[in-house]
């Protein structure tokens, strides 16, 4: 029977159980759909009184098989399976454990009723992949729960089974063994009259267009150019205003339009890329992470505290080490305040806060704490001499075989490791600020770093909720090295005709959370000035802004002026600084079009990304894109800098780089050998075969 191995058909008396069996997450590939259709038909022929759908393993179903997207769909389609459920004279129930997401939840919504285990997660995350639910989710969910469906669909965020029961699309939450409890529930309720979601009208009657529009406006306020949230709004609106079949047509039109678009391709590029980035090609198969039961973080400042919070958030005991009791108390209080804000917002329970806080401790006894550590992460001031001094002490205090990691964002890991007698156990673990929030973790491999050390850093990163990406050792690693290359062009744009708000407007319209100049104000312009001084480089505009005492938000003035609410306002003083410099440097100002601004900010990063690949600092182009999306505010629906280059076309990238190199005199913009080669061959970054060796 087609699909039989992907759907197990069991019988418990007059209740037939169809178990989805497509590990690890039971995606609804062709064979699963066929197995469901066959199983439903067979159960009806055999006189079943109820049919129960349940998942094998840890999940009900994570939804559609995205690797089938863009390929000819083989029958049966999900709507055909749903038609069979909805036309069945035998009630079909879904029993949900783990996750029911996307098409998995849509399958459950087509059933006559749904039961779930406590804590199961249900949701429609398609918006995060750049499209709308495409198998009736935007039509059935509103008919079951009304306007709350808009929030679930537009946000893409899952809810628990308990919340789903309160909202009205889970009928019962069953503790204990789910299949046993669900079979009993199905048998008990098989004779009830159930109204299918498609026939429900009570939750969509009396449609209030103004209330709907207000909710939609709030939910899409931060979409920043992403199309799928607006597509979701249009599809859900149809559920309230059109008959079911016509609403399905609106949903299908939105799905088809969006799934073929560049934004969805970019989001799926990142989705699969985040999986690919976890694969370290040259890590030996027998490389095992070292056991870590206690983490020690050296330094309780903003970064150290955030790292410690991340560990405690995911159940790993952690100790902060500080040089004084005053500094330690300050660091611990900052962690407590961060957690308490989350409690106040309702996103964290008091009980969970107390559980996390109990895992966090602090001490000023360096040797004792380090001697008990299974892994040490140093998070002190970004200065090589300071770091080497700390690592010399760590090497003496830590037990043999313990990995020592540095949270440096730019410094040479090999030089840091030289302060120890265990360079093979030294790695970089570059967290991003705020470390308790940001997902990216740039793990840095030194020339001596052992497979065990790399495996340990990778495993701990995953364990504390981070997305670890392994990179090679160089100044700035991947992300900071690439963003550093846009600085000279931003300076030139300011002198040639732009003001800070012009550049930030273009980048924020592209989808960046914050433009580069506003970001500089947030971080503090004195930090960049100190880096330039240490490296002996100059940036005329930035240096002049800092010389005027404008250090960013902390002084209420940087590239912008800031009011008491930290709202940024264009600065007349900065405009005068720029105009005076341009006149002094004899730069003739002109109107610069938005496309030129976009290209001159992004293409220097693309070119540097190509150099990073040539040098083997990153394994793959997708690693670079994943780093930028998860650590630098690059909008996921734009796919990252290397995806941007591929969409532009590498011949165009080469020609534009050569043009800007010539007209601006920026030698860094001369196209790299890799871009020249790919442009000549008609290739792309996506076609690069085999990882570069880090």
Automatic annotation (TrEMBL):
Its main location: other. InterPro entries: 3-OHacyl-CoA_DH_NAD-bd, 3HC_DH_C, 6-PGluconate_DH-like_C_sf, ClpP/crotonase-like_dom_sf, Enoyl-CoA_hydra/iso, NAD(P)-bd_dom_sf. Residues 476-562, 597-682 form the 3-hydroxyacyl-CoA dehydrogenase C-terminal domain. Signal peptide: none annotated. The keyword Membrane does not apply. It holds the Pfam family 3HCDH. Pathway: Lipid metabolism; fatty acid beta-oxidation. Keywords: Fatty acid metabolism, Isomerase, Lipid degradation, Lipid metabolism, Lyase, Multifunctional enzyme, NAD, Oxidoreductase, Peroxisome. It is found in: Peroxisome. The keyword Cell membrane does not apply. Residues 296-473 form the 3-hydroxyacyl-CoA dehydrogenase NAD binding domain. It catalyses: a (3S)-3-hydroxyacyl-CoA + NAD(+) = a 3-oxoacyl-CoA + NADH + H(+). It comes from the Bacteria. PANTHER family: 3-HYDROXYACYL-COA DEHYROGENASE, PEROXISOMAL BIFUNCTIONAL ENZYME. Monomer. This is 3-hydroxyacyl-CoA dehydrogenase NAD-binding domain-containing protein.
């Amino acid at each position: 029977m087609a699909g039989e191995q992907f759907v197990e058909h069991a019988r418990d008396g007059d209740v037939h159980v169809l178990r989805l069996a497509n590990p690890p997450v039971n995606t609804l590939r062709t064979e699963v759909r066929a197995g469901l259709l066959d199983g439903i038909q067979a159960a009806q022929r055999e006189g079943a009184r109820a049919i129960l759908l349940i998942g094998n393993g840890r999940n009900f179903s994570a939804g559609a098989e995205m690797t089938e997207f863009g390929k000819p769909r083989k029958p049966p389609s999900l709507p055909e399976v749903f038609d069979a459920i909805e036309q069945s004279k035998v009630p079909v129930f879904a029993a949900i454990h783990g996750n029911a997401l996307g098409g998995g939840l849509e399958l459950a919504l087509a059933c006559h009723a749904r039961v779930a285990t406590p804590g199961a997660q249900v949701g429609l995350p398609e918006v995060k992949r750049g499209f709308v639910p495409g198998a009736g989710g935007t039509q059935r969910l509103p008919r079951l729960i009304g306007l709350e469906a808009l929030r679930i669909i537009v946000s893409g965020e899952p809810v628990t089974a308990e919340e789903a029961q309160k909202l009205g699309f889970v009928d019962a939450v069953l503790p204990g063994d789910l299949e046993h409890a669900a079979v009993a529930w199905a048998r008990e309720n098989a004779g009830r009259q159930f109204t299918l979601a498609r026939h429900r009208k009570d939750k969509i009657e009396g449609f209030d267009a103004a209330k709907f529009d207000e909710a939609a406006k709030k939910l899409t306020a931060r979409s920043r150019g992403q199309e799928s949230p607006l597509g979701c709004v249009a599809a859900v609106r149809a559920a309230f205003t059109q008959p079911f079949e016509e609403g399905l047509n609106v949903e299908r039109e939105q799905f088809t339009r969006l799934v073929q678009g560049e934004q969805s391709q970019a989001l799926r590029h990142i989705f699969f890329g985040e999986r690919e980035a976890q694969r370290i090609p040259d890590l030996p198969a027998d490389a095992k992470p070292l056991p870590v039961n206690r983490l020690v973080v050296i330094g309780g400042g903003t970064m150290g505290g955030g790292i410690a919070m991340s560990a405690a958030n995911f159940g790993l005991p952690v100790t902060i080490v500080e040089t004084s009791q005053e500094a330690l108390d300050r660091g611990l209080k900052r962690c407590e305040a961060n957690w308490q804000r989350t409690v106040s917002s309702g996103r964290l329970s008091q009980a969970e806060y107390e559980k996390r806080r109990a895992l966090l401790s602090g001490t000023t006894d360096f040797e004792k704490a380090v001697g008990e550590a299974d892994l040490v992460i140093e998070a002190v001031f970004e200065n090589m001499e300071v770091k080497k001094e700390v690592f010399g002490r760590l090497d003496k205090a830590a037990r043999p075989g313990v990995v020592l990691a540095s949270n440096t964002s730019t410094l040479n890991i090999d030089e840091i490791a030289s302060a120890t007698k265990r360079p093979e156990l030294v790695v970089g673990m570059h967290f991003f600020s705020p470390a308790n929030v940001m997902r990216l973790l740039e793990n840095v491999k030194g020339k001596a770093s052992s497979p065990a050390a790399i495996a340990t850093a990778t495993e701990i990163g995953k364990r504390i909720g981070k997305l670890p990406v392994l990179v090679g050792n160089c100044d700035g690693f991947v992300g900071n090295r690439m963003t550093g290359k846009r600085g000279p062009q931003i300076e030139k744009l300011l002198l040639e005709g732009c003001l800070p708000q012009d550049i930030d407007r273009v980048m924020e319209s592209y989808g960046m959370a914050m433009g580069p100049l506003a970001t500089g104000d947030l971080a503090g312009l004195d930090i960049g000035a100190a880096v330039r001084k240490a490296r002996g480089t100059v940036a005329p505009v930035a240096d002049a802004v800092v010389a005027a005492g404008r250090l960013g938000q902390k002084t209420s003035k940087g590239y912008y002026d800031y009011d008491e609410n930290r709202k940024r306002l264009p600065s007349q003083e900065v405009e005068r600084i720029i105009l005076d410099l341009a006149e002094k440097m004899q730069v003739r100002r002109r109107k610069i079009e938005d496309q030129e601004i976009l290209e001159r900010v992004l293409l220097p990063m693309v070119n540097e990304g190509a150099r990073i690949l040539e040098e083997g600092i990153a394994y793959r182009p997708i690693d670079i894109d994943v780093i930028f999306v998860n650590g630098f505010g690059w909008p996921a629906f734009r796919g990252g800098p290397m995806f941007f280059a591929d969409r532009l076309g590498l011949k165009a990238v080469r020609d534009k780089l050569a043009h800007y190199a010539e007209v601006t005199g920026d030698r860094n913009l001369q196209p790299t050998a890799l871009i020249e080669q790919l442009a000549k061959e008609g290739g792309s970054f996506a076609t690069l075969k085999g990882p570069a060796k880090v």
